[in-house]
């Protein structure tokens, strides 16, 4: 269960007018502006928004990597700011950075995080083996991750995030760069998590994916949550037939890539 | 934040050691580099010393107008100097290095000597060329001793004791022991031992700081309960261990080389036994822990791998330049000398080689300074690891 209330994040950006300018001016950018939503257990919540909308920043704040400038958030009742340790144990995070240790095997990568999450050696090894089976990584498990394909790496990264069996799972664009087969297995995995009664929050800019998976959608644009509700409610509110059209209408522009 | 956990710290340290040692190419190159540099230096010194000695012993004296001074030529030949009469174009050949030094005899040598007048023998050499100096020195010495010999004989013929003409005798008493004289020659060894303690840490420090950013593994790590301080200390211990391996490899390299190369035969009774080895290790162990601390603190600066790399390069050059203070100084070392990191280590290592007693206060400096620097560096490193501004992308 994730409860977010009025979350804000500002960054101070240093800018130069040209590549040769000596003086840099500073500008305050509001990346996340008063975002509120709730993601429930046993549901998949989609964080939808165009590039640069503030999805990753929101997820980074929820995963305790960034502190918020205003507002608060709770994971299963534990406050993000004051109960970081509890929050980190409750959370499984597949963040924006999904890097693995190249020279360690897939098993070692997963096991390392299991141990850091506080699992005993035996528990961590059992859980690692179980995840390797679940994700179909048998053949690769004891090879260094250096030569892995994008999809294989993603599988190891997700196993690493789930190794301590967290109740709440944050996934930042989990299907980015994956082929159709890997995307499908990622979707199955998300549905599986939902069936286990977990709270899943994932971000995406792909409409179809959100439509196929989400029980609730939070649409973010320019740091603000412009809509929160079920996919049906999105259609009802906008009076449109397709989610994609509704998305564009809610964001209030067709600029997209060219904004 | 959760309480500091030794379990997590040791997990981080163990993982980093495994990860670093799997990078066989870098590890091998680093260890091989430091292990081979010691023996190389020793062999180089051996060959340099041997060639200097050989050139002074088997010396050839090119003499212009040698036919006017047959007695002098015979004297030189008796002294083991081969004489080459009338070298062609000698000034140019001295200048271009073909000849080290040439003696020019005055054509009036015989008549002047017979009539008891003073006569000139000119030594032509190039003082700016260092390798010619010992040969020119040997030739000058031979001329002086021949002159003294003739002078003495003349005095004796006239019934005067030669000591009348030499009222003062200069006698040099060199207080440096044999170890001290040869250690000055091999002071480079202290330099290379410190060099090993720096080189061994660079690749590893780069890997656990800049490498972690490059691979984008820091962010997932920071979402686990692991504290920045646990990460910092764990990484530091791992890099220090690799660095200790490098230092040990370098010391073993020296030990083996000094056993095999007969430096004693060349009048360099260089002693590097158990006592020196223990002294070196007592200085190098705290040093091997200090260097990674500093490198990590610098390496963690910057958001990108590139920035981290440049920052680390700065730290390496700082550490590398410090021993030059001792190396180039001409005056007596001031009291604070041993308290300057790297420079102090260099001074004490040189003392170990010279078999001098090391004061208790110097041992304090060898351990207290690294401990203090480590604490400061690790606090800075932990802060940077946990700093949200340092996360990739923002």
Q: Taking Cα atoms only, what radius of gyration of chain A do you get, to the nearest Å?
A: 19 Å
The end-to-end span of chain B amounts to 23 Å
N→C terminal distance of chain A: 34 Å
Order of helices and strands of chain B: HHEHEHEHEHHHHHHHHHHH
Strand content of chain A: 25-35%
Q: Provide the helix percentage of chain B.
A: 55-70%
Low-confidence stretches of chain B: none
Largest sheet of chain B: 4 strands, mixed
Total beta strands of chain A: 10
Structural class category of chain A: alpha/beta
Count of separate DSSP helical elements of chain B: 16
Would you identify the regions of chain A where 5 or more consecutive residues have pLDDT less than 50? Answer: none
Number of strands of chain B: 4
Overall shape of chain A: it is: globular
Shape of chain B: elongated
Walk me through the topology:
The complex is a heterodimer of chains A (259) and B (394).
Chain A: E1 2-16, E2 24-39, E3 44-48, H1 55-62, E4 70-75, E5 78-79, H2 84-90, E6 91-94, H3 106-116, H4 121-134, H5 150-162, E7 168-172, H6 180-195, E8 199-204, H7 207-213, E9 216-221, E10 224-229, H8 231-238, H9 243-251
Parallel strand pairs in A: 3-8, 3-9, 6-7, 7-8
Antiparallel strand pairs in A: 1-2, 1-4, 4-5, 9-10
Helix pairs in contact in A: 3-4, 3-5, 8-9
Chain B: H1 6-22, H2 24-57, E1 60-64, H3 70-78, E2 82-85, H4 90-95, E3 101-105, H5 109-114, E4 121-125, H6 133-157, H7 178-185, H8 188-208, H9 210-214, H10 218-222, H11 228-260, H12 274-299, H13 305-321, H14 324-328, H15 343-353, H16 360-386
Parallel strand pairs in B: 1-2, 1-3
Antiparallel strand pairs in B: 3-4
Helix pairs in contact in B: 1-11, 2-8, 2-11, 8-11, 8-12, 8-13, 8-15, 11-12, 11-16, 12-13, 12-15, 12-16
């Amino acid at each position: 269960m994730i409860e977010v209330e009025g979350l804000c994040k500002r960054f101070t950006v240093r800018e130069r007018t040209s590549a040769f300018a000596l003086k840099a001016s500073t500008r305050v950018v509001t990346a996340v502006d008063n975002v509120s939503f709730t993601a429930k257990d046993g549901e998949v919540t989609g964080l939808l928004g165009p590039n640069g909308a503030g999805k990753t920043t929101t997820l980074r704040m929820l995963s305790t990597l960034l502190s918020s400038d205003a507002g608060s958030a709770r994971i299963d009742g534990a406050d993000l700011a004051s109960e970081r340790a509890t929050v980190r144990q409750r959370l499984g995070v597949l963040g924006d950075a999904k890097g693995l240790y190249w020279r360690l095997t897939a098993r070692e990568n997963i096991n390392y995080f299991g141990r850091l999450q506080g699992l005993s050696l035996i528990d961590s090894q059992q859980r690692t083996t179980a995840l390797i089976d679940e994700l179909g990584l048998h053949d690769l498990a004891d090879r260094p991750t250096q030569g892995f394909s994008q999809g294989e790496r993603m599988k190891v990264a997700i196993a690493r995030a789930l190794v301590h069996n967290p109740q709440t799972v944050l996934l930042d664009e989990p299907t980015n760069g994956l082929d159709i087969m890997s995307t499908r297995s990622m979707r199955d995995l998300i549905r599986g998590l939902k069936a286990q009664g977990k709270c899943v929050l994932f971000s995406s800019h792909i409409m179809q994916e959100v439509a196929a998976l989400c029980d609730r959608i939070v649409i973010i644009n320019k740091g603000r949550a412009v809509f929160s509700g079920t996919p049906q409610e999105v259609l009802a509110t906008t009076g449109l037939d397709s989610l994609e059209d509704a998305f564009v209408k809610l964001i209030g522009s067709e600029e997209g890539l060219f904004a | 934040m959760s309480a500091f956990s030794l379990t997590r710290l040791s997990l981080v340290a163990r993982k980093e050691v495994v990860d670093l040692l799997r990078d066989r190419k870098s590890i091998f190159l680093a260890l091989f580099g430091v292990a081979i540099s010691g023996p190389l230096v020793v062999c180089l010194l051996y060959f340099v010393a041997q060639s200097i000695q050989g050139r002074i012993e088997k010396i050839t004296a090119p003499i212009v107008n040698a036919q006017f001074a047959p007695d002098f030529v015979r004297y030189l030949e008796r002294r083991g100097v081969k004489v080459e009469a009338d070298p062609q174009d000698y000034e140019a050949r001295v200048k271009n290095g073909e000849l080290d030094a040439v003696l020019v005899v005055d054509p009036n040598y015989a008549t002047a000597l017979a009539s008891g007048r003073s006569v000139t023998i000119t030594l032509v050499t190039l003082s700016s060329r260092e390798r010619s100096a010992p040969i020119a020195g040997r030739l000058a010495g031979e001329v002086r001793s021949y002159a003294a010999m003739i002078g003495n004989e003349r005095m004796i013929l006239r019934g005067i004791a030669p000591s009348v003409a030499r009222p003062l005798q200069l006698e040099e008493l060199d207080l440096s022991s044999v170890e001290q004289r040869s250690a000055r020659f091999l002071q480079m060894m202290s330099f290379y031992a410190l060099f090993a303690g720096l080189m061994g840490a660079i690749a590893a420090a780069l890997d656990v700081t800049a490498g972690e950013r490059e691979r984008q593994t820091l962010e997932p790590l920071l979402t686990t309960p692991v504290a920045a301080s646990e990460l910092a200390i764990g990484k530091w211990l791992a890099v220090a261990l690799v660095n200790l391996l490098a230092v040990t490899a370098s010391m073993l390299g020296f030990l083996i080389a000094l056993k095999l190369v007969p430096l004693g035969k060349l009048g360099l009774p260089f002693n590097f036994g158990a006592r020196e080895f223990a002294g070196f290790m007592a200085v190098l162990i705290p040093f091997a822990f200090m260097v990674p601390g500093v490198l990590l603190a610098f390496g963690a600066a910057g958001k990108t791998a590139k920035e981290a790399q440049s920052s680390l390069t700065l730290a390496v050059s700082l550490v590398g330049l410090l021993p030059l203070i001792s190396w180039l100084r001409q005056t007596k070392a001031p009291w604070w000398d041993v308290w300057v990191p790297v420079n102090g280590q260099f001074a004490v290592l040189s003392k170990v080689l010279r078999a001098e007693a090391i004061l208790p206060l110097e041992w304090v400096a060898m351990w207290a300074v690294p401990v203090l620097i480590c604490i400061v560096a690790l606090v800075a490193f932990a802060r940077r690891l946990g700093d949200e501004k340092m996360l990739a992308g923002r």
